[in-house]
C-alpha cells in the first residue's frame, strides 16, 4: 500500500441520519460502501479528499454523508465522559486559570473520594494540575471558571468518540461543538 492509500484508510466521515442528526464518525471505506449501495448520499465533498476508483465507477470520498432512510436511535441518558469530550466541553482551556489545557484534573481528588464524572472533572493546564495535586479548591482558595455540567445533545456522543474533527462537521454538530 502506498502512503495515499494508508491516509485514505484513516480518514473519518461524519454520518448523519435522514433528519441531519449526527450519528457517528465512520471510516471512509464504510462511507464509500454506503454510497455505492445507495444507502446514503454525499452531503459535503472536500476537493482535497481522494477519489476511489473501481472498474465501473469513481467515487470521491466525502466529508459528510446522510442516510437515505431514518434510523431510530435508542434513548441514552448520559453522554460517556471521555478525554476528547471533556476537552471539547471545556474548549481546551484550563478550568482554573484559562490557559491551554493539557490534562484532566479531578476537582475533588480521587484519593479523597472524588468520582470520575462530568461534575468532578475539568480540563487543566499542567502547572495548575501539578500545583493543585490532591488538595481541595477551598484549601487553595481557587474557584472554577465555569460550572461543571454533563453535556447534552446528540453531537456530544460523537465528540466523546473522536479527537480529530473535520472543521466541515461543525455546521452539522450544533451549538457547543465548536
UniProtKB/TrEMBL annotation:
InterPro entries to which the protein is assigned, alphabetical: HNH (IPR002711), HNH_nuc (IPR003615), NA-targeting_endonuclease (IPR052892)
Range of residues in the leader sequence: none
Record's keyword terms, sorted: Endonuclease, Hydrolase, Nuclease
Entry superkingdom: Bacteria
Domain HNH nuclease span(s) in chain numbering: 81-130
GO-annotated molecular function: endonuclease activity
Transmembrane domains' residue ranges: none
UniProt-recorded name of the protein: HNH endonuclease
Amino acid at each position: 500500500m502506498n502512503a495515499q492509500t494508508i491516509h485514505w484508510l484513516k480518514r473519518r466521515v461524519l454520518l448523519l441520519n435522514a433528519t441531519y442528526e449526527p450519528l457517528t464518525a465512520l471510516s471512509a471505506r464504510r462511507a464509500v460502501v454506503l454510497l455505492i449501495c445507495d444507502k446514503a448520499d454525499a452531503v459535503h465533498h472536500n476537493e482535497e479528499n481522494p477519489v476511489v476508483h473501481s472498474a465501473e465507477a469513481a467515487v470521491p470520498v466525502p466529508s459528510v454523508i446522510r442516510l437515505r432512510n431514518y434510523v431510530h436511535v435508542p434513548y441514552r441518558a448520559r453522554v460517556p465522559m471521555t478525554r476528547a469530550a471533556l476537552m471539547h466541553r471545556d474548549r481546551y482551556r484550563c478550568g482554573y486559570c484559562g490557559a491551554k489545557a493539557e490534562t484532566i484534573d479531578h476537582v475533588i481528588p480521587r484519593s479523597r473520594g472524588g468520582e470520575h464524572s462530568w461534575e468532578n472533572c475539568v480540563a487543566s493546564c499542567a502547572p495548575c494540575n501539578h500545583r493543585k495535586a490532591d488538595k481541595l479548591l477551598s484549601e487553595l482558595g481557587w474557584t472554577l471558571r465555569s460550572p461543571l455540567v454533563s453535556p447534552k445533545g446528540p453531537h456530544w456522543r460523537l465528540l466523546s468518540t473522536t479527537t480529530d474533527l473535520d472543521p466541515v462537521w461543525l455546521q452539522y454538530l450544533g451549538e457547543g461543538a465548536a
